[in-house]
Automatic annotation (TrEMBL):
Residues covered by the D-isomer specific 2-hydroxyacid dehydrogenase NAD-binding domain: 110-290
Gene Ontology cellular component list: cytosol
Xref: InterPro entries: D-isomer_2-hydroxyacid_DH, D-isomer_2_OHA_DH_cat_dom, D-isomer_DH_CS1, D-isomer_DH_NAD-bd, NAD(P)-bd_dom_sf
A GO term for molecular function: glyoxylate reductase (NADPH) activity
Full protein name: 2-hydroxyacid dehydrogenase
Recorded family membership: Belongs to the D-isomer specific 2-hydroxyacid dehydrogenase family.
Keyword NAD: yes
Keywords: NAD, Oxidoreductase
Amino acid sequence: MAKPKVLVTRTWPEAVEARLSRDYDVTLNADDTPMSADEIGAALGEYDAVCPTVSDKLPARCFEDGLRAKILGNFGVGVNHIDLEAARGAGLTVTNTPGVLTDCTADLALTLMLMLARRAGEGERELRAGNWTGWRPTHMIGRKLSGRVLGIVGMGRIGIATVRRAQAGFGMKVVYYNRSEPGADAMAGLDAQRLETVEAVMEAADVVSLHIPGGGANRHMIGADQLKLLGPDGLLVNTARGDVVDEAALVAALEAGEIGGAGLDVYEAEPQVPKALMTRQDVVLLPHLGSATRETREAMGHMVADNLDAFFAGRDVPNPVG
């Protein structure tokens, strides 16, 4: 019996590619060149499964013509890059990789908070440029995280993991917004106050960390009005999805001194980053590193493979996208 044909749109960890090569008739992307939406759309007519990543774009037009594919095995949790309605309408099962990147993304959220609070990015740039003149009492004064108020927008797995680190490591007070009340088991041992609106969190917090899916109603959830509430000493951290923040409004708020700084790992039009952000000293910019550890990326890839294995064996997939 012929093995199912599988397309992997980007280079994946070696161990995962070896597994897929063993079990499937797989096409790998050896040079890691991004595929266009039209190329992915064409592949859906040629392969039994297509495995995209969060950087790929799969608009409705990808699913319009006679498709061979029956499953999208997405490498990543977020699926706002896929037109889910069109995909499901074309009969595709969509899966993702939840849970395995929780700790790494929470670690990175704390990394960005620390870099902002202690001006670490700014300091490294000064030193590497050869402009550091030595220690002095008033040089590059930052602020402590200890005892500050952390605001969380989106109290899911990653939001909760971020809170655990912030409270255990820095004794931060926590307020949060979530559309529903998190489960008691998930919140066990945490001291966190749920507020009724995003705006209430922005106003109450010294540092706000975003942990919500992108797209839909969440697009530009953080705009000019919300940023103004954060205040001139407030810090914004985004390790969620770039389109959650209105980047133009963020630039304007920084230029007007309405917030104290921003730490970003994701952007609206990745890999493009606004020049107005890149030239600012009060902004820390990372290239979408939230899940970028060997252990996590391998676990994500194996989760995709687990979903493919179940699907082609006629079993329920472990990680369907609702």
